[in-house]
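Quick bug: L-threonine 3-dehydrogenase output formatted oddly.
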Amino acid sequence: MTTTTMKRAVLNAPRDLRIETVPVPALEPGDVLLRVQAALICGTDLRIVDGTKTKNVVYPSVLGHEFAGEIVACEGRLPDELELGDRVAVYPLVQCGHCASCVRGLGNICRNRQAFGYQIDGAFAEYVRVPAVAVQAGNLVPVGDTPADIAAVIEPLACAYNGQRLINAASARSMLVVGAGPLGQLHVRLARALGVATVVAVDPAPHRREIAVVSGASSALDPSEVTAEVVAELTDGVGFDTMVVAVGRADAMEPYLQMLAPGGRVNIFAGFPTGTDQVTIPANSVHYNETLIVGSSSCQLSDFQKVAEMIRTGTIPGEGLVTAHLPIDQLEQGLERARQGVDLRISIDATTAPATGATEGETT
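Here's what came back:
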């Protein structure tokens, strides 16, 4: 590789984001260098930039934890399943392996974990160094000829898969997805891929309800339309087997707990802003109906690998999940576009996008 410098977006403090030209990262023994082909803007990135997420954030940081790229260099031997030139999606958590969570197989909630994008330099850059510990742990997941932007969607889809796995969505006849933003739309697609027959999305925004139907929702309702009579009609009088709370607001959860079937299962998927995370739960309803309420945080490596296979085989359709592409010089515009919530995902294509303007569709 002859390139010696690269562009990257560095967050020096909240709202202090700068595009810099710096040397390509040097590799230490066991490290791998990726040429970034697609890096998606996530709600977490917005919260870090805006300063509403500060826990574990290191400054300066290079954001971007949903990404895919090409292996262009390594310092030492690659694992047997990898070769130079492979396209890989990157599982973004590096776990300690010895804390109480890790020894229980819950490395995604490792108390000592390091995350690409705000502790380890992330993918809003032309190149990313993947440290040896992540390489050996299997964080680089080959994706074959899956388009790079679709491969980058594996990470948020795997987070959705973790949440739905915890409520056994694959056995459900019905699901209510509250919040039809970008991640809510992923939940709709995933639920349909897992065989949930009736998937209903709830969102106050008409355009998001329209997208939800395109994504596979049986119905998409305004919150005012979710009445006991409507729910009974949609679920044969039983109520929803499962519910995903895909927006961090108390009013996205409290009114719908009474819409669950006996034995209903709830995934609190979204994080709630600090200070607004108090939710009133009808304890007797939970008690007598044996309602299960479970949170989910990120995903396990096995979830990531499972979703990568589902994407490769077409079990989950990846087309249309990334609705805009921008070069790294337009990251600020991409962040503002993401705040508006129109796109499902925006890809920052540091090494493959045109020099100017936003494009629609997929990279290859």
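Actually, after a second look the formatting is fine. The longest helix spans residues 154-166. Closing.
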